[in-house]
Design brief:
Layout (H helix, E strand, L loop, with lengths): L9 E7 L27 H18 L2 E7 L9 H11 L2 E5 L7 H9 L2 E7 L4 H7 L4 H15 L2 E8 L7 H11 L3 E6 L5 H7 L3 H20 L5 E2 L5 H9 L23 E4 L4 E3 L7 E4 L5 H5 L2 H4 L23 H8 L15
Parallel strand pairs: 1-2, 1-8, 2-3, 3-4, 4-5, 5-6, 6-7
Antiparallel strand pairs: 8-9, 9-10
């Protein structure tokens, strides 16, 4: 009996092809401190370069590229469809993280035909809360777009950015996405972009633990009743909660100090901006270079990227038994402290 060929693990390329956007979200890192100085848009010649460089890097790593095409709203880029055709012709996996406003049955069918696997939309609460964060009418448009994507056979992912401003609605939001039959739901914490916004959206550690428990109760309920939505536990502090509950156990034979899971900053993904700048993580200041001067392969193995994977520098996490699987969110930590290796501000675990 012939064995099936082994599928290479994916390497994520979060690719912001344009800054152009129909919204001005209150928690967006692009527009965090006022109007954008000027919309940037990656030229087509450079887009071809990114695809080729990503392929070469993944060949070196023994992985396959997975392009997360985003912006801004990537559909607003004049070469969006040209890029979709290129990725499809090359046989690469790709998905979109964008807005709902330009989606209809024709657009979704065209994306599906060109190999788009998933489209990620955002819901940051129920209608009034979501529209407060984004813009009036955005909630209704998102629900409409979900149906268009489902009719086209594209996986629908819903992402929520949770903070003190909307955490109380998270259980109801989970009920909503389950009722809508979305394929994936996840939430991540707000990354502070200024002292004022840090104070406005802050949650204390035990307060955040209660948010996770409330979310878990609704996720467990829907899963036990046959819900097909995959509830992705994106925040690595889920590992801490599940370990306390006995739902996660440290594998036998695990070696102290070895990284098995947790944040992939510097290891499992890279971010490319419309300017050609390359970041280890888009949610914090982590620029490692630009494709105008170096290839993605050179940047991945550069000293600047190596600084993002100096795991022994984690001040609190390196002393914790969950070190190899958790480490919280370095981007959130950076937003609070300016140091990605400091203690996660929402981690409630006491470490000697």
């Amino acid at each position: 009996m012939e064995s099936k060929p082994k599928v290479k693990p994916a390497f994520a390329i979060q690719w912001h092809i344009t800054d152009e956007c129909d919204q001005r979200c209150k928690h967006c890192y692009i527009f965090a401190n006022g109007e954008c100085a000027g919309f940037k848009r990656m030229p087509w010649k450079q887009m071809i370069q990114v695809v080729s460089q990503a392929e070469a890097l993944c060949e070196k790593l023994g992985r396959q590229p997975y392009f997360y095409v985003t912006g801004g709203d990537p559909i607003l880029h004049p070469d969006f469809w040209r890029l979709a055709e290129l990725l499809h012709e090359r046989g690469f996996m790709w998905c979109v993280m964008g807005n709902p406003f330009h989606l209809d049955d024709e657009v979704c069918a065209r994306m599906k035909a060109l190999g788009c696997r998933k489209y990620q939309l955002s819901l940051d609460g129920l209608e009034s809360t979501h529209d407060y964060f984004r813009k009036p009418g955005s909630f209704v448009e998102t629900l409409r777009a979900i149906e268009c994507l489902k009719r086209a056979g594209i996986w629908v992912a819903i992402m929520n950015t949770v903070s003190s401003m909307n955490a109380h609605e998270l259980p109801q939001l989970i009920d909503l996405v389950a009722s809508l039959g979305v394929d994936v739901f996840a939430f991540g914490r707000y990354c502070p972009t200024s002292g004022q916004k840090r104070d406005e959206f802050h949650m204390e550690p035990l307060e955040y633990r209660k948010v996770l428990l409330a979310a878990q109760e609704r996720m467990d309920y829907h899963q036990s009743h046959g819900c097909k939505t995959f509830f992705q536990l994106k925040d690595h502090l889920w590992t801490l909660l599940r370990w306390e509950q006995g739902r996660f156990k440290i594998p036998e034979g695990a070696k102290p100090g070895v990284i098995y899971d947790g944040c992939h900053c510097g290891t499992g993904h890279m971010t490319v901006l419309p300017t050609g700048d390359v970041y280890a993580c888009r949610r914090m200041e982590s620029k490692v270079g630009t494709i105008a001067e170096n290839t993605l392969e050179e940047l991945f193995f550069s000293s600047a990227m190596e600084e993002k994977r100096e795991f022994d520098k984690f001040e609190k996490c390196s002393k914790c038994e969950l070190f190899g699987w958790c480490r919280g969110c370095p981007a959130v930590t950076y937003g609070y402290t300016g140091n990605m290796y400091a203690a996660d501000p929402q981690c409630w675990k006491e470490v000697d």
